C-alpha cells in the first residue's frame, strides 16, 4: 500500500516522511497523523508496518480502494486517539479483537465497509471512547453487554447491520450518551427501561427493527430530547404528552407501527414539534376500525412544518381536519402535508391556499370531490401535488401565477375533463406529470415539450386524447417514462427516438435538483408486466414506453432500438404493420415486451436471442412466420400462448405450426 506522491523526487530527497503528502509529525519528527482520503489508495492494510508508528495518534482512511481484512496488528497502535476507516466497501472480515488494546481511543469510526461477524467483547476495553460508529456494515450477533463499560460515550451508531437479540440493559450506564442509532437491524423485545437514565439523550433512532411495547417509560420528560425515530417496528403504545414534557422535542417519526388510535397519543405538550410522521398507524390487527378526525391536541401544533398521517384511517371532512374553529389554517407553517390513503371527504378547503410555505401536498387516495380551487396554483413554494385517486371533477383551473416551482403533479384516477390542462404550460421545472385515468379530451398540445424541458415521467394513459402524437415530443431529452396508452391516438409512431437520451442510459438517473425531503417519497402507479404496481423509492429505475390500446398505424420505428436503457415496451392493440425492427436485440435491459394484437408480419428477428433480461413477452395475434429464435433467456418463456395466433410460426414452445382452429381460438381468448 503506497502512494505515488511518496515516490516523487521531493519525497525521495529527504529521509524524513514528515514532508510527505497526507502525513503529519510532531516537533520530534515522529509521525503522529496519517490521513488519506479520496486518493485512490489501493491495497491491503496488512502491507502497513504498524509497529513503525508507535506515536501515531490519528489514522484516517476514507473513500479509497482498500480490500481484505483489517489485520490484528492494528492493535499495536496503542497511542491512537482517532481511528477512522470509511467508505471502503471491499474491506471485509471481522473487527479485530486487538482494537481492545487501543485504550487511548476517543473516536472509532469503521463505517460503510464490508465488515462481518460479531462486535468483539474487547470493545468494552476502550473506556476513553466518546464516539463509536460501526454503521453500514454486515455485522451479526447481538450488541455485546461490554458496551456498558463505555461510560464516556456520547455517540453510538450501529445502524444498518444484521444485529439481532435485545438491546442490552447496560446501555443505561452510558450516562453521557447523546446520540443512539440502532436503526435497520433485527433487534427484538422492548426498549430497555434503563434508557430513562440517559438524561443527555438528544436523538434516538431504532427504525426498522422488530421492537414493540410501550415507548413512553424510556423517554418520559427528557429536556434534552430533540429527535425520536421509531418507525417500522411493532410499538403499540405511547404517550406523546409524556415524551414532549421536556419541551425540546422537534422531530417525532413513528410511522408503520401499531398505535391503535391517534386520540390516545395526546399531543398536549408538543407545541415545539416541527416534524411529525405517524403514517400507516391507526388500524388494529385483524380489523379496519376508522379512528375519526384529527385530535384537537394535534390540530394545535401550529409550529409543524411537516405532517404525515397517511394510511391512518382518518375520517371526516377536509375542512374540519385542516381548519380551526376560528376559520384559520391549523398548520400555518406547514411545508409538507401528507394525508393520503384515509377516508377524508368533502371539497378541498380554499383556506389551504393560505399555506404560503407549502412545498409538498399529498391528499391522494381519499374521497375528496368537486372542483379544485384556482388559488392552489398560486402557492409560491409548491413543488409536489398528489391528488390522485379521489373524485375531483370538472376542468383543471388555470392560473395567472408566474410561479415555476412545481416539479411533480399527480392528478390520476379522478373525473377531470376538458382539454389538456393549460395550467401545466411553462412549468419549466416539472419532472413528473401524471394525468392518467381521467376524461381529458382533445389533442396532446404541441407546446408540451418546449414548455416542460425537465420532464422525466409523463403518464397520460386511460383518457380520451385523440389526434396524432406530437412530432416534437422527442424534445423531452430527459424522459424516462412515456405512457400514452388507452387513448384514441392515430397515425404513425414518430420516428426520432434518438433524442430520448434519458432512455439511452443503462443506469437509473438522479432526480436532479428536485427537492424530495427525506420524510416524503414520491409514488407513481403503472401497469408493469401486466400487473399494477405502485413505485415509490424505485421511481428513478423506471424506463419505459407504453403506447398500447390506441389506433396507431404503419411500422414500428427502428429508432426504438437505440434506447439501450429501456426496460418496458408495450405497443399492443394498435394497427401496426410491417416487420419487427431487426435490431431489437440491442435493448439488452428490456424486461417486458408486448407487441400483440397488431398486424405485424415477417420473421421474428434473430436478435431476439440477445434479449438477456426479457421475462414477459407477448407477440400473439399478429401475422408472424418462420422459426422462433432460440436464446438462453427465451428458453425460459415456456407459455406457447405468447406466440399464439401467428399461423406461420414454429419452434419452441409451440407444439405444431398448424394449430387446430379451436386451439387458436382458445389461445386468442386467453390473451384477452
From TrEMBL:
GO terms for biological process: anatomical structure morphogenesis; plant organ development. Keywords: Glycoprotein, Leucine-rich repeat, Membrane, Receptor, Repeat, Signal, Transmembrane, Transmembrane helix. InterPro entries: DNA_repair-toleration (IPR053211), Leu-rich_rpt (IPR001611), Leu-rich_rpt_4 (IPR025875), Leu-rich_rpt_typical-subtyp (IPR003591), LRR_dom_sf (IPR032675). Gene3D superfamilies: Ribonuclease Inhibitor. The keyword Thylakoid does not apply. GO terms for cellular component: membrane. Pfam families: LRR_1, LRR_4, LRR_8. It is a single-pass membrane protein. It is found in: Membrane. This is Receptor-like protein 12. It comes from Dichanthelium oligosanthes. The lineage of its organism: Eukaryota, Viridiplantae, Streptophyta, Embryophyta, Tracheophyta.
Amino acid at each position: 500500500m503506497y502512494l505515488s506522491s511518496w515516490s516523487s523526487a521531493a519525497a525521495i530527497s529527504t529521509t524524513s516522511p514528515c514532508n510527505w503528502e497526507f502525513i503529519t509529525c510532531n516537533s520530534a519528527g515522529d509521525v503522529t497523523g496519517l490521513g488519506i482520503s479520496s486518493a485512490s489508495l489501493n491495497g491491503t492494510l496488512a502491507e502497513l508496518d504498524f509497529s513503525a508508528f508507535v506515536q501515531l495518534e490519528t489514522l484516517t482512511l476514507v473513500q479509497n480502494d482498500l480490500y481484505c481484512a483489517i489485520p490484528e496488528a492494528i492493535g499495536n497502535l496503542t497511542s491512537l486517539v482517532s481511528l477512522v476507516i470509511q467508505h471502503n466497501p471491499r474491506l471485509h472480515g471481522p473487527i479485530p479483537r486487538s482494537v481492545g488494546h487501543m485504550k487511548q481511543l476517543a473516536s472509532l469510526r469503521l463505517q460503510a465497509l464490508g465488515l462481518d461477524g460479531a462486535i468483539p467483547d474487547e470493545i468494552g476495553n476502550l473506556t476513553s471512547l466518546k464516539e463509536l460508529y460501526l454503521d453500514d456494515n454486515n455485522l451479526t450477533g447481538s450488541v455485546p453487554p461490554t458496551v456498558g463499560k463505555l461510560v464516556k460515550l456520547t455517540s453510538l451508531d450501529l445502524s444498518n447491520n444484521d444485529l439481532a437479540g435485545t438491546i442490552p440493559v447496560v446501555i443505561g450506564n452510558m450516562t453521557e450518551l447523546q446520540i443512539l442509532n440502532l436503526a435497520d437491524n433485527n433487534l427484538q423485545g422492548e426498549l430497555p427501561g434503563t434508557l430513562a437514565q440517559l438524561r443527555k439523550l438528544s436523538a434516538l433512532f431504532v427504525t426498522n427493527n422488530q421492537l414493540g411495547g410501550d415507548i413512553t417509560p424510556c423517554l418520559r420528560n427528557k429536556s434534552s430530547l430533540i429527535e425520536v425515530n421509531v418507525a417500522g417496528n411493532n410499538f403499540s403504545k405511547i404517550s406523546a404528552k409524556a415524551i414532549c414534557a421536556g419541551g425540546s422535542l422537534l422531530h417525532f417519526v413513528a410511522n408503520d407501527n401499531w398505535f391503535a388510535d391517534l386520540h390516545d397519543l395526546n399531543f398536549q405538550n408538543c407545541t415545539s414539534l416541527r416534524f411529525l410522521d405517524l403514517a400507516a398507524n391507526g388500524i388494529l390487527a385483524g380489523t379496519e376500525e376508522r379512528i375519526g378526525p384529527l385530535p384537537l391536541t394535534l390540530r394545535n401544533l401550529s409550529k409543524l412544518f411537516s405532517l404525515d398521517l397517511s394510511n391512518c384511517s382518518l375520517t371526516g371532512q377536509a375542512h374540519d381536519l385542516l381548519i380551526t374553529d376560528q376559520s384559520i389554517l391549523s398548520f400555518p407553517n406547514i411545508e409538507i402535508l401528507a394525508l393520503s390513503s384515509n377516508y377524508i371527504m368533502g371539497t378541498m378547503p380554499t383556506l389551504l391556499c393560505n399555506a404560503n410555505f407549502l412545498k409538498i401536498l399529498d391528499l391522494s387516495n381519499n374521497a375528496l370531490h368537486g372542483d379544485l380551487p384556482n388559488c392552489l396554483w398560486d402557492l409560491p413554494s409548491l413543488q409536489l401535488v398528489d391528488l390522485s385517486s379521489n373524485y375531483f371533477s370538472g376542468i383543471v383551473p388555470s392560473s395567472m401565477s408566474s410561479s415555476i416551482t412545481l416539479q411533480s403533479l399527480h392528478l390520476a384516477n379522478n373525473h377531470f375533463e376538458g382539454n389538456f390542462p393549460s395550467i401545466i404550460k411553462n412549468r419549466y421545472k416539472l419532472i413528473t406529470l401524471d394525468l392518467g385515468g381521467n376524461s381529458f379530451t382533445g389533442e396532446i398540445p404541441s407546446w408540451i415539450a418546449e414548455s416542460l424541458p425537465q420532464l422525466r415521467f409523463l403518464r397520460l394513459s386511460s383518457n380520451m386524447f385523440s389526434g396524432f402524437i406530437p412530432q416534437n415530443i422527442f424534445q423531452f431529452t430527459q424522459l424516462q417514462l412515456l405512457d400514452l396508452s388507452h387513448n384514441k391516438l392515430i397515425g404513425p409512431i414518430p420516428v426520432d427516438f434518438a433524442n430520448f437520451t434519458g432512455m439511452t442510459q443503462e443506469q437509473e438517473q438522479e432526480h436532479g435538483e428536485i427537492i424530495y425531503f427525506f420524510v416524503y417519497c414520491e409514488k407513481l402507479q403503472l401497469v408493469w408486466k401486466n400487473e399494477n404496481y405502485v413505485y415509490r423509492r424505485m421511481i428513478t429505475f423506471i424506463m419505459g414506453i407504453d403506447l398500447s390500446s390506441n389506433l396507431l398505424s404503419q411500422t414500428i420505428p427502428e429508432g426504438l432500438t437505440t434506447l439501450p436503457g429501456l426496460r418496458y415496451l408495450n405497443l399492443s392493440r394498435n394497427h401496426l404493420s410491417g416487420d419487427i425492427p431487426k435490431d431489437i436485440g440491442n435493448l439488452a435491459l428490456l424486461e417486458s415486451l408486448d407487441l400483440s394484437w397488431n398486424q405485424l408480419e415477417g420473421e421474428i428477428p434473430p436478435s431476439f436471442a440477445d434479449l438477456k433480461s426479457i421475462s414477459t413477452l407477448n407477440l400473439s395475434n399478429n401475422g408472424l412466420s418462420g422459426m422462433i429464435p432460440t436464446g438462453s433467456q427465451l428458453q425460459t418463456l415456456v407459455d406457447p400462448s405468447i406466440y399464439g395466433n401467428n399461423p406461420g410460426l414454429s419452434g419452441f414452445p409451440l407444439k405444431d405450426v398448424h394449430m387446430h382452429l379451436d386451439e387458436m381460438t382458445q389461445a386468442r381468448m386467453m390473451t384477452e
